[in-house]
Amino acid sequence: DAMVIQNPRYQVTQFGKPVTLSCSQTLNHNVMYWYQQKSSQAPKLLFHYYDKDFNNEADTPDNFQSRRPNTSFCFLDIRSPGLGDAAMYLCATSRDPRQEETQYFGPGTRLLVL
Amino acid sequence: GNSVTQMEGPVTLSEEAFLTINCTYTATGYPSLFWYVQYPGEGLQLLLKATKADDKGSNKGFEATYRKETTSFHLEKGSVQVSDSAVYFCALIEDTGGFKTIFGAGTRLFVKA
Known about the structure:
By secondary structure, chain A is mostly beta strands. Chain A has no helices and eleven strands. In chain A, a hairpin with a 2-residue loop joins strand 5 (about 45-50) and strand 6. Chain A is globular. The mean pLDDT of chain A is about 90. Chain B is mostly beta strands. In chain B, about 0% of the residues lie in helices and about 50% in strands. Chain B contains no helices and twelve strands. In chain B, the strands form three sheets. In chain B, strands 2, 5, 6, 10, 11 and 12 form a six-stranded mixed β-sheet that branches. In chain B, strands 3-9-8-7 form a four-stranded antiparallel β-sheet, with no helix packed on it. In chain B, a hairpin with a 7-residue loop joins strand 10 and strand 11. Chain B is globular and about 40 Å long. The mean pLDDT of chain B is about 90. At the A-B interface, strand 5 and strand 10 of A face strand 5, strand 6 and strand 11 of B.
């Protein structure tokens, strides 16, 4: 009964080679989030989708893009990964925050950049 | 800006010991406060929350009280178990209905049998 699924769990890419991480949800939630978490640091919000509306955080690098083709799926695209982009990437969902603020997280994808 | 500060870990306790993990926050509005837990190999999951001053959140023997006067939301448990070993994150959403959750850096807890 997995609710937020992230694939793959581990991803290795080369410096500058585009990579896509995927997230799917079975909760039918309105909002999907992508966070970056570096070792021993707090998760940092990159962007979120409210339904089809995309909301980028001001300090998210242009190198990071996202797509949400339907309610269930959301993708994180890193156009030209640098060594500093190695991190855990967490996907989360929530209902309309005006009704319920709890976020539901996937297990994360750990990205290694060689 | 808004921020969350929690005590550095790791915290190592023996089974049945009392646990406190300190958390303080800075916010301009009236935040909702959360504790999330991350067990090894899993995603974060909500442990408890409080949405206004003096509210107490509780779950699985853990408690935290929203203290506006000290801007704190300390996590406590009277008797920890080995299965409580995890990373604990304090977090806030600035205003009710907001989208952006701001997390603390996390505190790793080890409980020894």
